[in-house]
Amino acid sequence: MEVKVLNISGKETGAKVQLSEEIFGIEPNDHAIYLDVKQYLANQRQGTHKSKQRNEIAGSTRKLYKQKGTGGARAGSIKSPLFNGGGRIFGPQPRDYSFKLNKKLKEVARRSALSYKAQDNSVLVLEDFTFDSPKTKNFISLLNALNFANEKTLVVLAEANQNVYLASRNLQKAKVITADQLNTYDVLNAGKLVLTTGSVKTLEEALAK
């Protein structure tokens, strides 16, 4: 798949990049995508939710009233889950939601996500660029030049660039990552995928069979 290379002004540079069929042209594996996205979202969960059981509630353990003769149900400690302020039955406890996936399966999922974007003509290649200063207006100008102002855009750089990252940080629909941070969820969550020529090479080295 051959794609024209643009500059940050949105104009063609005359150069072209050949996107590997092994990465951008495979038959997508939907189940691999599902598992990889499920793992990504699970890993985002802190798992710090916690409610107190009856043995953790502050309060007396004395019997509230005598066992018989009151006409009411028998009751023990005020910390019983049946009373307001008592412990919670089967409440949430801290846990780790992460789970393991094979490395090859994750690679298949990423290639599948990239192939979906390529099929939808949602992949654009820019020449490597940087900004002189971390100003949001610079990034907005870039999106306007590409006609992506109203699109959810994922920009993939070959290596970290502080000015580009900071310029995009305040924009709700824009996200900047490096090629080694690329994941299935971010690719599918974006409406448009913008790669730099350097990031294309990095992805091919990482994902090519």
Automatic annotation (TrEMBL):
Single GO MF annotation? rRNA binding
Q: Is Nucleus there in the keyword field?
A: no
Which keywords does this Swiss-Prot/TrEMBL entry list? Ribonucleoprotein, Ribosomal protein, RNA-binding, rRNA-binding
**What is one GO cellular-component annotation here?**
ribonucleoprotein complex
Source taxonomy: Bacteria, Pseudomonadati, Bacteroidota, Sphingobacteriia, Sphingobacteriales
Recorded hits in PANTHER family, A to Z, give:
50S RIBOSOMAL PROTEIN L4, LARGE RIBOSOMAL SUBUNIT PROTEIN UL4M
Which GO terms are recorded in the biological process aspect for this UniProt protein?
translation
User: Could you tell me what this protein does?
Assistant: Forms part of the polypeptide exit tunnel. One of the primary rRNA binding proteins, this protein initially binds near the 5'-end of the 23S rRNA. It is important during the early stages of 50S assembly. It makes multiple contacts with different domains of the 23S rRNA in the assembled 50S subunit and ribosome.
Q: How does it assemble?
A: Part of the 50S ribosomal subunit.
Protein known as: Large ribosomal subunit protein uL4
Report the sequence similarity comment from the record: Belongs to the universal ribosomal protein uL4 family.
Per its UniProt record, what Pfam families does this chain match? Ribosomal_L4
Please name the HAMAP family in this protein's record.
Ribosomal_uL4_B
Q: Which domain of life is it from?
A: Bacteria
